[in-house]
Amino acid sequence: MLRCRWILGMIACLYLLPAIASAEKYRIASGDVLSLRVLEWQPTESHAQVWDAFTVELLVDADGSITIPFLGPTPAAGHSTEELATEISRALRQRLAVSTSLDAVIQIASYRPVYVTGAVRNPGEYTFRPGLTATQLIARAGGSALARDTAEINLSDLLSREGTMRLLALESERLAIRRAMLQAAIGGADSLEEPRRHGGLPWSADLVKSENEVLRLRQVRRKRELASLDSQIRLYNNEIDSLTERTAAQELLVESARDERQTARSLAQRGLAVGSRVAETERSLVLIEGQLLDLSTAILRARQAITLAEAEKSALRDRELIEDTRELQRVEEELERMLANFATEEELAHLEIGRALGDGLGEGDRHSTDMIVTIVRDQSGVAVPRSGPEALLAPGDVVRVAIPRNWSRRPGEALGLVTQ
Question: What are the start-end ranges of the H helices in 17-80?
């Protein structure tokens, strides 16, 4: 009897030999197709007889069971082929009441399929074989591709979108430097302070130089206008000094004329002078006093002009401050709009590339230049540790392929946009 069981075991090993390496540790799961053979040792004829009624292929159902003739539904998922064969042998001996020389042989006729999705030419379901790697599966799927179907993604549209993004980035840079220039002008600085950029990238030297030159010219214009007003004020002050000296001299003439008039009146009262002499002194005094009044009026006008010039200097500074503040608000609104448009264009491009090139691109893979291969196993949605092109696959694995591109960068990172 021991010899019979040893022979049956050897026969089972011969049947199992092509797949024994992979079947030792493999656990049966839903979707596998099993090959069943039942052998009975005939001691009188010294050979094993195959029961044709039990030579069948059985699909492991979604609930993990198989349906065996005479036994009905039998749990299979989670067992190795050897464990399942032992269970079937025991069950058949009990069910059919046969001798202990009956033995069952279970092989994997076909494993449940593997799947590939993402940046391959022919994504879908593929037959698994032991030793299959992700690279081999990708090759069977036609290799990596920039897009599965030109109907899904238009490369010219993507290039156009990238061009639009670059134009938005350049305009954002210009607005950011213009904002810094206006802030320097409002603060009275001689040069602008360069704003911070993502990654610490330097600004265009020509752009910074150009805006600094604009700031310099604005300061030159303001100094010229202030100098013109200061020159007017100096002229008016000089005029006031001259008028003041003339006024002093004129006041002396007034005093002299008054004295002469008083003398003429005294002589006329005593009969020593005629009335015409008194009238002449009166006219002379009136004329001189009128000239003195004109000088006083001219001094007042000059002082009023100085006051207006000083007010114009203050108004000039206030007007520039108001204009610069309004311009700064406009530039900041335009910059915010440009950055928002850039972010929108980038997200749209990222979504399109994601649909065409595959999912599974993690944050750590964004700056990679190689194909990203992620393996998801056991229908759990959890990636297999150390996934990659050379990773060995298991039945039921889902291989996700992604090709990282510049579209996956976040707004402003690679282009060094100014931070808000």
Answer: 20-23
